[in-house]
Design brief:
It is a single chain. The protein has about 425 residues and is mostly helical. Among the domains are: about 160 residues, HUPs (Rossmann fold), CATH 3.40.50; about 45 residues; about 90 residues, Arc Repressor Mutant, subunit A. Helix content is about 45%, strand content about 10%. The strands form five sheets. Strands 1-2-3 form a three-stranded parallel beta sheet. Strands 4-5-8 form a three-stranded antiparallel beta sheet. A two-stranded antiparallel ribbon has the order 6-7. The longest helix has 16 residues. The termini are far apart. About 35% of the residues are buried. The protein binds glutamic acid.
Length: about 425
C-alpha cells in the first residue's frame, strides 16, 4: 500500500516551527517510502484563516521545499460531507441528538463512544491505551450546525486516504476518540505517529516569548530554507550516526518514524545559527560573493578591487547575511567606525600606543606583505618583546578595522596592504592619543 501522509495546519497568519517540523516529518516519511505527501488546510475558523494567512502558509512551505503531490484540500469546502457523515452516524446509532443544557438553542449531535477500552500502537510512543470509563461521548456537530474539529479531521483523513497521521503529541488524547470515529464510520484506521513537543530551556513549550518561533522570522533574517529544514528535521530525530549537516537526499534515505524520539526536543537557536553557517560555507564561492555584493549594495558600500579575496576570507565565518556588511565594510573604506567598547577595553590601556608604534615600525620594514610574512613578523614581535598575543592582536585589529573580532589578522593585514595598514595605525593613534 502506498504511504500517504499529510500536513493539516490551521492557518493563523504565522507558521510556528513546531507545525513546520510536523510538515517536514510527514514530507520526509512520504519521500522515504516513495509515497505521497498531501496538504489539507483546516480553515474552518474563517476569522483566523484569512486568504493572507493561507498565503503565508503556502509561501512558508514553498520556501522550505515541501512540495505536495496533489491539490490541497480546503476543509471549509467539505462541510456538507461532514454533516452527511454525522447524519449517517445518527442513522447507524453511533450518534444521538441532544439539546445541551436544555437552553432551547437547538440540538447538537453527539457521538456515542463504544464503551470499550481503546488501544493503539503509536509509531513513536509505542502502545497506548485508554479505559472506556475515561472516555465520554462528545459533540460532533454544534447546535449552530457546524461540524467539530474531530469529525472534520477524521473525515478528511478518510477522504484523502491518509495511511499515516504524523502530528504533534498535543493530539494524542484526541486520537482515542478519532479511532472510535473511524470504526463507527467503517473506515480503516490509519497508523499514528505523535511527535514530541519542542521545548525551551525550561522544558516548557517553545514559544515566541523564547525567541524566533515562526518560519517567517527566520526567513526575514536571511536563514536558508534548507538550513532551517535540516535543523528542524533533527528536532526529535537523528539518522542514528554522527551526521548533522545532511542533504535532502541523505535525510530522505535515513528518515524513519521508528527512529523518532519520544522525549521532548529542545530548541537551540545557537545550533540553528551554526547550521546556517555550515550551509553558508558550503555555498559556491561565486554565489557567496553575489550575496555579499547584494548586501553591500543595499548598505551603499562599494566593494573594492580586493573584494573577491575578502569574500573568500569571510565565507568561512559568516553565519547570516546580516553579518556581511559589518564584517567587511572596513576593507572597502578607510572611514570605518570604531567599536567604542573595544576601544575602551583594549586600546586605551597603558603601553598600547607604544606597542602599536613599534609594530608599525616592524611592518614598515617588511619587504613582502603576504600572509605568511606578516604572520611570522607578528609572532616574532610578540615573542621578542615578551608580550602576549592578547596585548598585541586586539589593539592592532581595532586600529585597522575598528573592531575587536574578525578573521585571522594576518590575512586581513595582507589584504589591506602595507600602506593602508600603516596609514590606519597612524590615524588611530592620532585620533585616540588625546
Ligand atoms: N489543524 C490541526 C492542528 O493544526 C490538525 C492536527 C492534525 O491532525 O494534524 O493542530
Amino acid at each position: 500500500m502506498t504511504t500517504r501522509t499529510r500536513f493539516a495546519p490551521s492557518p493563523t497568519g504565522h507558521v510556528h516551527i513546531g507545525n513546520m517540523r510536523a510538515a517536514i516529518f510527514n514530507w520526509l516519511y512520504a519521500r522515504h517510502t516513495g509515497g505521497q505527501f498531501l496538504l489539507r488546510v483546516e480553515d474552518t475558523d474563517r476569522e483566523r484563516s484569512t486568504p493572507e494567512a493561507i498565503k503565508t502558509l503556502l509561501e512558508a512551505m514553498d520556501w522550505l521545499g515541501l512540495n505536495v503531490d496533489e491539490e490541497p484540500l480546503y476543509q471549509s469546502t467539505r462541510m456538507d460531507a461532514h454533516l452527511a457523515a454525522a447524519e449517517k452516524l445518527l442513522a447507524t446509532g453511533h450518534a444521538y441528538k441532544e439539546d445541551k443544557g436544555g437552553t432551547g438553542q437547538g440540538e447538537c449531535i453527539i457521538f456515542k463512544m463504544p464503551g470499550t477500552d481503546i488501544e493503539f500502537t503509536d509509531l513513536v510512543k509505542g502502545a497506548l491505551k485508554k479505559p472506556a470509563a475515561d472516555m465520554a461521548d462528545f459533540v460532533i456537530v454544534r447546535s449552530n450546525g457546524t461540524p467539530v474539529f474531530h469529525l472534520a479531521n477524521v473525515l478528511d483523513d478518510i477522504e484523502q486516504k491518509i495511511t499515516h497521521v504524523i502530528r504533534g503529541d498535543d493530539h494524542v488524547e484526541n486520537t482515542f476518540r478519532h479511532i472510535a470515529l473511524y470504526k463507527a464510520l467503517g473506515a480503516p484506521v490509519p497508523q499514528f505517529a505523535h511527535l514530541p513537543m519542542i521545548i525551551n530551556a525550561q522544558g516548557k513549550p517553545y514559544s515566541k516569548r523564547d525567541g524566533d518561533a515562526f518560519v517567517g522570522d527566520f526567513q526575514s533574517k536571511g536563514f536558508f530554507g534548507d538550513a532551517l529544514f535540516n535543523y528542524l528535521a533533527l528536532l526529535g530525530w537523528s539518522p542514528g550516526d554522527e551526521r548533522e549537516v545532511m542533504t535532502r537526499q541523505e535525510m530522505i534515505e535515513a528518515f524513519d518514524l521508528v527512529t523518532v524520539r519520544s522525549s521532548p526536543a529542545q530548541m537551540d537557536l545557537r545550533k540553528l545559527l551554526w547550521m546556517n553557517g555550515e550551509y553558508m560555507r558550503a555555498m559556491k564561492p561565486s554565489d557567496f560573493a553575489a550575496l555579499c555584493r547584494k548586501e553591500l549594495a543595499a548598505a551603499g558600500v562599494v566593494p573594492g578591487a580586493n573584494a573577491d579575496i575578502v569574500f573568500a576570507l569571510m565565507q568561512e565565518r559568516t553565519k547570516l547575511p546580516s553579518e556581511i556588511v559589518p564584517s567587511t565594510a572596513f576593507f572597502f573604506s578607510d572611514d570605518f567606525a570604531y567599536d567604542e567598547k573595544a576601544v575602551e577595553k583594549k586600546l586605551l590601556k597603558e603601553g598600547v600606543f607604544q606597542t602599536l608604534e613599534k609594530i608599525a615600525g616592524i611592518l614598515q620594514g617588511l619587504e613582502q606583505f603576504d600572509v605568511e610574512t606578516v604572520n611570522v613578523a607578528l609572532h616574532n614581535f610578540v615573542e621578542q618583546n615578551g608580550l602576549k598575543f592578547g596585548d598585541v592582536m586586539p589593539p592592532l585589529r581595532i586600529a585597522v578595522s575598528g573592531q575587536q573580532s574578525g578573521p585571522d589578522l594576518a590575512p586581513v593585514l595582507a589584504i589591506l596592504g602595507k600602506d593602508n595598514v600603516l596609514a590606519r595605525i597612524r590615524k588611530t593613534l592620532a585620533r585616540f592619543r588625546a
